[in-house]
Write a structure and sequence with these properties.
By secondary structure, this protein is of the alpha+beta class. It folds into 2 domains: 43 residues, 3-Layer(aba) Sandwich (YefM-like fold); 42 residues. 68% of the residues lie in helices and 17% in strands. A 3-stranded mixed β-sheet has the order 1-2-3. Helix 3 packs across helix 4. It is elongated. The relative contact order is 0.08.
């Protein structure tokens, strides 16, 4: 996915290429008029994903966590899961114990 800026004239002249780059490569294209962004062209899939995230604020966070977990799996294998869960539980218990009753 690439973000880029083009003029309205360039968008009009190369509209088919613009559609291909957005639909096939998920590019995000800012179309400018008089040097200022006027519209953004995104794929239908990207638009739907963003609409879902807007209706459910946790969806974006969950997606980021899944990407992070995939990265951690790739870097460290499966062993990091147990250590991370243990650390999260330890921190949660400390927070709970520190609260006034």
């Amino acid at each position: 996915m690439v973000e880029r800026r083009i003029s309205a004239t360039e968008a009009r002249v190369h509209f088919g290429e613009l559609l291909d780059s957005v639909s096939k490569r998920n590019d995000i294209v800012f179309v400018q008029r008089a040097g200022a962004p006027a519209v953004v062209v995104v794929s239908l899939e990207e638009w739907q994903r963003r609409c879902e995230q807007a209706s459910d604020p946790w969806a974006g966070i969950a997606e980021e966590m899944e990407e992070h977990w995939a990265y951690m799996d790739e870097q460290y294998g499966d062993s990091w899961h147990h250590e991370a869960v243990d650390e999260i539980l330890r921190a949660a218990r400390e927070d709970r114990d520190a609260r006034p009753v």
